[in-house]
Amino acid sequence: MAGTDEVLFSLLADEDRRQAETLTLIASENHTSLAVRRAVASRTTDKYAEGYPAARYYGGCEVVDQIESLAIERALALFPGADHANVQPHSGTTANLEVLTALAGPGGRIVGMALAAGGHLSHGHKVSHTGKFFDAKQYGTNPETGLLDYDEVEALVQEHKPKVLIAGGSAYPREIDYARMAAIAHAADAYFLADIAHPAGLIAAGVMPSPLPHADVVTMTTHKTLRGPRGGMILCRQDLAKSIDRSAFPGAQGGPLVHHIAGKAVAFGEANTDAFRTYQKSVKANAAHLAQTLADASLSIVTGGTDSHVVLVDLREAGMTGAELEDKARAANLVINKNAVPNDPRPPRETSGIRVGTAAATTRGMGTGEMEGIARVLIGLVRGESPESFRGTVGELCEGFPLPD
């Protein structure tokens, strides 16, 4: 194959090498299995399949109907308590937009966590379509603890009477009281949407609480901790299934990405195993140990720790920006991302913090001992040590824990 396009396949080889020779600590990234990658690279990428199983607008869908039905069956087995699954969303953001359109309607009012507090763009941020097409109100976190203030959420919901209350975020490391959030939403005659894009794999494995059956709708990405191909998924009650399906197709999407649905089916099957559940326990233990090791070195950990795979570090007392540490870490072959912290005075391209995650490193087989080594690298970089001095340490970790086949 390489002979057909030397330039492109050389770049693909470069990316293989980059991933093998660096440690991914970005909380939204993971490493898929060979089976998932083969499914995504299959001939199903050639097939148009607008519609849903047994109700397509194209012929020749008898096999892809079975593939999508298998993905749905496995999704419902993985997340008990859901009545219906839509596996077609191209991303978590797309899934959120589809749900909000179905439940709130154009211009409808929604309430979600502010991006600056750890929420996600698609929860009503002003630069997102969800902030432009809906009347969005935002809640934050306690300025002292970084934790959700449920009384504040309740007061905001009672004041604004939204159609949808959203829980979840991209940089909130703690468990969410889904029962409390559902009660707040339902007391105001609002739907409750739980976005579990980040902890989906931990929830599927039973090491974090599930929003089901409290939530009316659950959205997620299928990569991150769920360790599948890039994409999204929606779970909901049966009475909402028709409106949500119509919002996905024909509302927001045309032909589904059948090859990604095939990859999702593989990943859902992999996730419903004892091996995956053991893996997620390690993901959580590694994150807790990494957070504690950093805290022991006097780095400030937002919320004081983590219940998930995410560790959010506030660098303001260290006198360094998130962008600076991201660059230094990359020079040491650690891949992290700068991230805002609550009440961050710096702009998004600079930030006062970093977000690290343990899902990808744990997929490579690393444990708490390796987390201590990674923590020492981050601590050294914060203290001004040369990134080049840590390349050997990171290189040994990469060689000792290669990427999965």
Question: Could you tell me the radius of gyration in angstroms?
Answer: 21 Å
**Cα-to-Cα separation, first versus last residue:** 19 Å
DSSP summary, beta strand count: 15
What sequence of helices (H) and strands (E) makes up the elements? HEHEEHEHEHEHEHEHEEHHHEEHEEEHHH
Apparent shape: globular
Poorly predicted runs of 5 or more residues? none
Largest sheet: 7 strands, mixed
Give the structural class.
alpha/beta
Give the number of helices: 15
Strand content: 5-15%
Mean pLDDT: 97
> What level of helicity do the residues show?
40-55%
Query: In oligomeric terms, what are we looking at?
Result: single chain
How are the strands of the largest sheet arranged? 4-10-9-8-7-5-6
What do you see in this structure?
This protein is an alpha/beta fold. It is 43% helix and 14% strand. It has 15 helices and 15 strands. The strands form four sheets. The protein has a seven-stranded mixed beta sheet with strand order 4-10-9-8-7-5-6, with helices on both faces. A four-stranded antiparallel beta sheet has the order 11-12-15-14. Helix 4 crosses helix 9 and helix 6 (150-160) runs parallel beside helix 7. It is globular, with a radius of gyration of 21 Å. The two termini are 19 Å apart. The model has no long low-confidence stretch (mean pLDDT 97).
